[in-house]
């Protein structure tokens, strides 16, 4: 429709006055638009990654069933993003009576001021249009939220100025829920809402109306309710009272990415890696190390699983690592910044601030655990990409007593000269697919760091901040090193 009606009379003569548009509820509107989207194919909610076969089918079922629903999951599982994406299932715009506080439908008004206006102005009643983004109302639940905030209250000032009785509907101040009429009302962290306020939601969920402050004022609202909650909050800060939980039609349990590849896709989408100072190039293996840090943290017994490890962790780590590489490139007047493993270590503050430790972890310290996670992630990436590549020449060079220490802030060409001393290191990077050729200086430096860190993680070589990379002690060798030792691998005898 190119020109939108501006008065009730124009609206009555337009297609908006025809069924089913005229009497379609928000739930039916979502159903119709969702069905169209499903028939058309393609992604329902662009930007939501990793839920296609798990969460989205459950969400679609809930919407088709016209259910109020709750997204239950740990922090950083895209719960709020899913709720905000639902606005794409609204009509582009809907007509309301201009000046209405509760988005009154021109053909079925619910508030007394608007009913009086239509009775007085008739076809000249002014019409406004509500865009889809304006039909989403979100409230973060906190213990201090009151019934007046959510439902509404009597406004004594309105009563005094208008000469109305306190029980008159014209004295009412509407809360967020009535103002979300004909839209979606979302409450984040529902358990933080006091039991008294949760009780106030009963009527709207079951009977579809609200009563304000005990006065005989009832509003038949047309609103879809959606909630989010963290299972940890059920006992830590509050709970969802049983009668309210019983009225929620669908409980959808979210989760973290099931595979490293999905996690990398999310992090790549969300992380801010484009910088205007230098050309940032993030190797896939660096991004994979960052992602595996999060996966390892979620399985680490020293980290509290009830709190979870948010997907914000790898996003922040990658951004921080890129910033460290950017800082180095700017200082050294290099046009390209390629993050290295050392840059991930420099991003440890993005890990320590996002993990909750168990008692054992508290004893060891968050920084120490973060460094262990990074090194273990390097070992996993090395095994995944170079598991079949012969690295014995690299290990043997260190076993013969050689050592290599390169400062994290060193320029790329100097780093490359240092790594060139290690036989087979460049060949391994090329054969393992970490680089396409030896000419990729910055990327080769990053690849060499990964290989050496991975070998250190497997305890085939040793690594300390003071001494750099050196030979490993026999008693500290990993499984592969122990097998070589037992078979009389050259270079072991002199320090066995």
CATH topology name of the largest domain: Rossmann fold
Strand elements, count: 15
Report mean pLDDT, rounded to a whole number: 88
The low-confidence parts are: 484-496
Work out the helix count. 24
Helix and strand content put the structural class at alpha/beta
Count of discrete domains: 2
CATH class of the largest domain: Alpha Beta
Enumerate the strands of the largest sheet in spatial order, edge to edge or round the barrel. 4-7-10-1-11
Description:
There is one protein chain. With 496 residues, the protein is α/β, with parallel strands linked by helices. The protein folds into 2 domains: 10-253, Rossmann fold (3-Layer(aba) Sandwich); 260-495, no CATH class. Helix content is 43%, strand content 12%. It is built from 24 helices and 15 strands. The protein has a 5-stranded parallel beta sheet with strand order 4-7-10-1-11. Strands 2-3 form a two-stranded antiparallel sheet. A two-stranded antiparallel sheet has the order 5-6. Strand 8 (209-211) and strand 9 (218-220) form a beta hairpin. Helix 13 crosses helix 14 (284-299), helix 14 (284-299) crosses helix 19 and helix 21 (412-419) crosses helix 23. The chain starts with 7 loop residues before the first helix and ends in a 10-residue tail after the last helix. 40% of the residues are buried.
List the helices and strands and how they pair.
Elements (H helix, E strand, L loop, with lengths): L7 H5 L13 H15 L14 H10 L4 E4 L6 H7 L7 E5 L14 H10 L5 E5 L4 E5 L6 H4 L1 E3 L1 H7 L9 E3 L1 H4 L3 E6 L6 H6 L1 H5 L2 E3 L6 E3 L2 E7 L3 H4 L5 H6 L2 E4 L6 H11 L8 E2 L3 H16 L12 H20 L4 E2 L3 H6 L2 H4 L6 H6 L1 H21 L5 H8 L12 H8 L5 H7 L9 H17 L3 E4 L3 E4 L7 H8 L10
Parallel strand pairs: 1-10, 1-11, 4-7, 7-10, 12-13
Antiparallel strand pairs: 2-3, 5-6, 8-9, 14-15
Helix pairs in contact: 13-14, 13-15, 14-15, 14-19, 19-23, 21-23, 22-23
């Amino acid at each position: 429709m190119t020109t939108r009606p501006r008065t009730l009379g124009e609206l009555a003569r337009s297609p908006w006055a025809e069924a089913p548009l005229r009497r379609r509820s928000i739930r039916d509107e979502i159903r119709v638009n969702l069905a169209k989207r499903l028939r058309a194919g393609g992604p329902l909610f662009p930007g939501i990654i990793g839920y296609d076969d798990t969460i989205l089918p459950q969400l679609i079922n809930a919407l088709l069933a016209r259910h109020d629903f709750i997204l239950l999951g740990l922090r950083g599982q895209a719960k709020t993003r899913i709720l905000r994406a639902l606005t794409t299932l609204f009509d582009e715009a809907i007509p309301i009576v201009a000046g209405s506080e509760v988005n009154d439908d021109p053909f079925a008004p619910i508030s007394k001021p608007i009913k009086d206006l239509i009775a007085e102005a008739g076809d000249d009643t002014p019409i406004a249009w509500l865009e889809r983004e304006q039909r989403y109302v979100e409230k973060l639940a906190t213990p201090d939220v009151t019934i007046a905030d959510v439902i509404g209250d009597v406004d004594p000032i309105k009563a005094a100025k208008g000469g109305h009785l306190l029980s008159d509907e014209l004295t009412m101040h509407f809360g967020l829920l009535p103002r979300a009429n004909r839209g979606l009302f979302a409450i984040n962290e529902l358990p933080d809402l006091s039991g008294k306020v949760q009780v106030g939601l009963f009527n709207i969920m079951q009977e579809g109306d609200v009563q304000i402050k005990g006065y005989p004022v009832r509003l038949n609202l047309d609103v879809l309710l959606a909630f989010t909650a963290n299972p940890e909050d059920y006992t830590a800060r509050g709970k969802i009272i049983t009668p309210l939980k019983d009225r929620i039609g669908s409980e959808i349990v979210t989760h973290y990415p099931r595979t490293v590849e999905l996690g990398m896709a999310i992090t790549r989408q969300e992380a801010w890696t484009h910088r205007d100072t230098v050309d940032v190039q993030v190797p896939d293996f660096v991004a994979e190390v960052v992602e595996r840090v999060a996966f390892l943290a979620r399985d680490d017994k020293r980290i509290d699983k009830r709190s979870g490890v948010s997907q914000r962790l790898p996003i922040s780590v990658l951004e921080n690592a890129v910033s460290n590489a950017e800082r180095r490139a700017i200082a050294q007047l290099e046009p390209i910044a390629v993050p290295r493993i050392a840059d991930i270590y420099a991003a440890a503050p993005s890990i320590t601030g996002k993990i909750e430790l168990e008692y054992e972890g508290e004893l060891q310290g968050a920084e120490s655990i973060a460094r262990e996670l990074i090194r273990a992630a390097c070992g996993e990436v090395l095994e995944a990409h170079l598991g079949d590549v012969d690295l014995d020449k690299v290990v043997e060079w260190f076993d013969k007593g050689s050592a290599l220490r390169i400062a994290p802030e060193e320029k790329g060409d100097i780093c490359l000269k240092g790594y060139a001393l290690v036989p087979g290191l460049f060949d391994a990077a090329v054969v393992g697919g970490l680089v396409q050729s030896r000419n990729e200086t910055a990327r080769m430096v990053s690849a060499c760091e990964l290989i050496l860190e991975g070998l250190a993680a497997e305890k085939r070589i040793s690594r300390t901040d003071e001494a750099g990379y050196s030979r490993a002690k026999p008693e500290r060798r990993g499984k592969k090193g122990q097998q070589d030792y037992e078979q009389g691998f050259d270079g072991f005898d002199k320090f066995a």
